[in-house]
């Protein structure tokens, strides 16, 4: 049995474990010698396959240690589902979630992008279908438990997602709302000390 926390980083659509924010997170952990295990999966393009991958991984935890989740864009949508799943399976363990410009109802947007897609990091091509959209909608989290253990980070300049939707959904969570920026969340690396303070249960400096 280990009490070393598990940190899960979930990337966005057509991204990968090689994304800039994922790599910045990994480097921050190594540079600061943080005592935690890290899982940064390459999420499958189909939501059902992504769900199975996440479910299989958390099933191995058996509720023995804290689980921290960082989710970017679509990864924030998945991360919200995963947090609720963990709370249901292991209500006694500490689960905290950091959301970075998260998708709130991505299935609504995806209907406008049906067809061929390309992963910008791997070059893999795949087809976005109605089945993807419907499965994604089935993963929507309609309620939030332990909302005090969620930190929402958004930038008003997000050109892909309307940050107001995230502010509305996570209204009772801790929030950092920055002017300007973009969907990629500019200067994310500057926010990493705040992110990890929150995950460790420390008071956060908002900015």
TrEMBL record:
InterPro entries from the UniProt entry: AB_hydrolase_fold, UPF0227/Esterase_YqiA
Domain of life, per lineage: Bacteria
In Pfam terms, one family for this protein is: UPF0227
Q: PANTHER family annotated for this entry?
A: ESTERASE YQIA, ESTERASE YQIA-RELATED
Protein name as catalogued: Esterase
Species whose genome carries this gene: Endozoicomonas euniceicola
């Amino acid at each position: 049995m280990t009490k070393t926390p598990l940190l899960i980083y979930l990337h966005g659509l057509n991204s990968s474990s090689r994304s800039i924010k994922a790599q910045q997170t990994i480097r921050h952990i190594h540079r600061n010698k943080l005592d935690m295990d890290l899982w940064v999966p390459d999420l499958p393009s189909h939501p059902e396959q992504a769900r199975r991958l996440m479910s299989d991984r958390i099933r191995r935890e058996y509720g023995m240690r804290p689980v921290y989740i960082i989710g970017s864009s679509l990864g924030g949508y998945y991360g919200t589902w995963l947090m609720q799943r963990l709370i249901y399976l292991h209500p006694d363990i500490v689960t905290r979630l950091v959301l970075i410009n998260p998708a709130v109802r991505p299935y609504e947007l995806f209907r406008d992008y049906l067809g061929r897609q390309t992963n910008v990091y791997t070059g893999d091509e795949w087809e976005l279908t109605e089945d993807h959209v419907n499965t994604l909608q089935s993963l929507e989290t309609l309620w939030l438990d332990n909302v005090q253990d969620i930190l929402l980070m958004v930038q008003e300049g997000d050109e892909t997602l309307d940050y107001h939707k995230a502010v509305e959904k996570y209204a009772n969570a801790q929030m950092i709302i920055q002017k300007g920026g973009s969907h990629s969340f500019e200067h994310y690396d500057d926010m990493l000390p705040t992110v990890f303070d929150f995950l460790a249960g420390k008071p956060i400096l908002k900015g």
